[in-house]
Amino acid sequence: MKKLVYLDSCVIAKLFLLEDRSDEAIALVNDPEVVSVLTSDLSFVEVCGVFSRAAAQGRITMPQCQAFLAKFREWFLTATTHISIRLDQITMAGAAAIDLGIRGADALHLVAATSALGAAPVVDAFIFVTYDVKLAKAARDTGVFTSVVD
User: Fold this and answer.
1) pTM
2) CATH 3.40.50.1220 fits 3-149, yes or no
3) Taking the domains of the chain in order of start, what are their residue ranges?
């Protein structure tokens, strides 16, 4: 079975900061059935923010933060298909945030993922992965994804 997987930033951060559900996230991206890992350009900024907060909270050191950033940057540029955000997607996400009652950044992830489907390779499953309950519900409600992991 060929799978296309969209990861939001909370899942991506767990690939680098080993914490609750990191094993699950790592297994998902290493699944041999996954033909492509998608995320939006927004994820880059959000994950950098996660690293920064972890350092500010003393969960990691600044050298660890810099090391995670370097590994993440390499992974983002080489192991993912990142979706560049267009102005029409931003306006659609604004409307989706209001209609679905979700944060603006989450709406942007949802719009980016759904817009990628038309340009994606033919797959058996399109999976949206988030550890945010509200975003997962919104993704399920679209009816676009084969499954939503939360």
Assistant:
1) 0.92
2) no
3) 3-149
